[in-house]
Amino acid sequence: MRRGQNMISAHRQNQQLILRNILQRPGIARQTLSEFIGLTPASITNLTGSLLRGGWIAEEGQAAGPRTVGRPSIGIRIATGTHYMGAVYLQRRRISVGLAELDGTAVVRFDDELEDRPDPRQTVQRMGMMLEAAIRKVRPPHLLGVGVGASGIVDYPAAVIRVAPRYGWSNVPLGEWLGKVLKVPVVVDNNTRGMALAEQLLSPHREVRWLAFLYIGRGMAAGVWADGRIYRGSRGIGGEVGHTTVFADGERCWCGNRGCLELYLSEDTIRARTGVSEDTPIEQAIEQAPSALREEIVHLVTTALVNLDNIYNPEVVVLGGWVDRAWPILREAVTDELSARTTYWPHPVRVVASSFGEGIGLTGAAVIGLGQLVYGVGEDDWRPPASLPREWSL
Description:
It is a single chain. By secondary structure, the chain is α/β, with parallel strands linked by helices. Helix content is about 40%, strand content about 20%. Strand 12 and strand 13 form a beta hairpin. The radius of gyration is 22 Å and the shape is globular.
């Protein structure tokens, strides 16, 4: 629900809009910025002056773009080395923690193994210790907040993990718990949505209005950027393409459904069917698989893309997980089948590999925090903790 805006919140929204445009157009001139976002040159000067003094942006000589008559314009970019966003990427058996600059660049990263069905409170304490160790690595040690990318069903406004079957968690108020440990706001979302937001906010796809990120790893889901915001659905399960049915009488899934796509395309299933261990790159296993099995994998990956195309109609689908690594092997066959199965669609969807490779998980987690707290691409109904340090805000 959108709320009315007082002068303070309108000021903050204008700053976020300016920061987002500078992030996506490094070296932009103030005059060009004014034209892009529709604020007067005087307002731009005042707002950018405040952001310069706060260490959010920096000047960098001549502005990007063609030269104009008269004195050269000064370009502005997002500042580095002043503020940091914490990032936590929760995977099935691994936890990755790091710090990112305001432009999403990772500067510190720690990884640790995660036991099966970990205790949620102990896991939060571990996150806190890892983040505290990370922040000691930078100067100034200024942590703005933390973005957490988690698997399962996440209540984004409340920062609560409602269901994480692979961990055995339910109704875990992760944002509240970690916020109390670190004394900063914590934003929690499904990790695939963070990946989609990272691709839209930081990659060459920033001009795309309709984008889907398809992640296939040990689980499978899609994050969808829909014309200006992340799509979640009414209860936070929008994008669970892994639980679309491909075999009506197939095996039973943990979700209660039968024949879910995830059951047949998960990394564990692919490894089991190709007979390779964890030490063998999965792309190598697929390349060496019998032709019938490789054709089945192509057919199922194409099915996932057709489902995404028919349900969400994105301009671009970005791939992550094992399918990203195996895309050079699968691309030609999948593209051909996708074209044949969407014959009448006027503009075929583009399918591309992730801009961030295997770093997309931690980058996506950082962008979950950056999007809500810095760039204004989070949700209106996100609820920050009742007590925050004053310096967290713009």
